[in-house]
Amino acid sequence: METFNSIAISISSLLISFIRYALHMALGQPSQQLRDLSGEHED
């Protein structure tokens, strides 16, 4: 049972780490280089 718990905790922490990395790449530091094009259009 202890082996199952350690494997489950390891897989869960890897999954959480991957999700955090994906969110950081999508919304974090690299996205600050993008421009907001909606402010450049005069309607």
From TrEMBL:
The keyword Thylakoid applies. InterPro entries: PSII_PsbN. Keywords: Membrane, Thylakoid, Transmembrane, Transmembrane helix. One of its GO terms (biological process) is photosynthesis. It is found in: Plastid membrane. The chain crosses the membrane at residues 6-23. It holds the Pfam family PsbN. The keyword Transmembrane applies. GO terms for cellular component: plastid membrane. It is a single-pass membrane protein. This is Protein PsbN. It comes from Quercus rubra.
